[in-house]
Amino acid sequence: MHITVAGLGVSGSSAARALAGLGARVTVVDGGDGDKQRAAAAELEAWAATGSASGTGDAGHRAGITVRLGDGDTLPEGTDLVVTSPGWKPTSPLFTAAAAAGVDVVGDVEIAWRLRGPDAAAWLGVTGTNGKTTTVRMLASILEAEGLHTMAVGNIGTPIIDVVLGQGKDGARPYDVLAVELSSYQLHWAPSLRAHSAAVLNLAPDHLDWHGSMQAYAADKGRIYEGNTVACVYNVADKATEELVRAADVEEGCRAIGFTLGTPGPSQLGVVEGLLVDRAFVENRQKQAQELAEVADIAPGSGAPAPHNIANALAAAALARAFGVRPAAVRDGLRAFHPDAHRIQHIADVDGVTYIDDSKATNTHAAEASLAAYEHIVWIAGGLAKGATFDELVQKSAARLRGVVLIGADRALIREALARHAPEVPVVDLDRTDTGAMSQAVREATRLAEPGDTVLLAPACASMDMFVNYNKRGDAFADAVRELTARDH
Q: CB within 10 Å: which end of the chain, N or C, has fewer?
């Protein structure tokens, strides 16, 4: 086959190697033509020519890879299939041309699903507006505690196509089960995916410029439930996730399993007196409840877990229990799990003030969950709004705010929401978008804070106006806090 791969990023390069390794003739197209794209193109073409890089298949079966830079709109002649990277919009001219030519467009997740062997590992899928990576890593930790051979894959950073094609190769032990993080982009392009069990953690407006509407965004998230065989896990506090379960076409016998921060009902997991309990995977759901872990077992040593991380743990536990994992493994897996950086990360306590880095809170829904975790907050916020509005977020959080420091290109949107709904809260508006602004933001936040307060970086915005990514933004915050402690001590 002649397969066109759209995009030269991690997933595109992975798909190109895999498909060429299986004998396809691959053309990779990318609209960029900078140093980064040229370096990636040279690496791919060298791999195809020499077979020296890691990958599937052997050089004798590779039909080769051609890379076309600076033109991502034109469909290469003779294309039989287009495999797209997740970020390419459905309205891209390349896909319009493919539709006109009767050529299918799918994603790398769809290709991975189609290429599974007859004894392939089961997939436990996780999606949602926020919390996906944390939940998938919690799930993988629980599965490992059960003694299962597993891996966290997909949108988390490890291309799933590499894992699927590498299962059991060269004497490696095949995976028993995969914990799969799936974005709305990936689900849009994966029509055949049928998971063992899956969870939608929450739904809030995000990526609407890509999907076109909230309805379309929710529908793509809901694809994760299609064809589930054992459990569709939903958030009791987010009715939209339950509605997606109701709309899904699942295998006979597949169950709807809720998770809640309150006392669980039958077929739910929840919290009772500081314990995570299961009333779904027990013999008598009406009268029995199984203790799984203590709330304190969630990332022990990092302080009291934020409510949304308790919810993430319950969702992970539900998926693990759906796969038959014992209660003790849920406890042990949660104890062994350590959150990634920039996700409610404790940086320091200085003069009675706590400094927390949640740079990963790149939208209002994530920021709301972060703000709900603390009683008195000096909030550092702002960046690229991505079309978001902030009135609801400010209304819900106003009572917790001791002060606000605004940074970034779209900070005026947050300032205006604060003026409408929290006019009494002191606001410092930093009229600069250079990366050094973070040091000043931390100094200003420290000035506003009182002992017992939390200085919280939860920007509710993307970072690219000032930083390469949210990681660099969080690093700048942590560096500024350390400068503060060095100066004070």
A: C
275-308 pLDDT tens trace:
999 999 999 999 999 999 999 999 765 556 888 8
Residue 432 DSSP code: -
DSSP string, 391-422: HHHHHHHGGGEEEEEE-STTHHHHHHHHHHH-
How big is the CA angle at 106 (ends 104 and 108), to the nearest 5 degrees? 150
pLDDT at 168: 61
Type of residue at 283: E
Dist. CA 378–CA 402, nearest whole Å? 5
**Contact assessment for residue 190 and residue 223, using Cβ atoms and an 8 Å cutoff:** yes
pTM > 0.85: yes or no:
no
CA 272 vs CA 100, 283, 304: distances in Å: 56, 19, 16
The pair phi, psi for residue 20, each rounded to 5°, is -65, -35
122: β partners: 177
CB 298 within 8 A of CB 373: no
CA distances from 426 to 72, 270, 419 (A): 48, 38, 10
- Pull the structure tokens for residue 373: 């975790």
Backbone angles phi, psi at 22, to 5 degrees: -95, 5
What the block records as the tokens of 36 is 């980064």
Q: What is the widest separation between alpha-carbon atoms in the chain?
A: 71
Give tens-digit pLDDT for 403-423: 999 999 999 999 999 999 999
Please state, in angstroms and rounded to a whole number, the distance separating the CA atoms of residues 78 and 73.
15
Burial (CB count <10 Å: 0-12, 13-18, 19+), residue 363: buried
- How many residues in the chain? 489
What is the DSSP pairing of strand 122-127 with strand 454-457?
Answer: unpaired
* Residue 86 three-state SS: coil
Using DSSP's 3-state secondary structure scheme, residue 179 falls into strand
Question: At how many degrees (to 10) do helices 327-336 and 307-322 cross?
Answer: 140
Cα–Cα nearest to 275, from 297, 300, 254, 302: 297
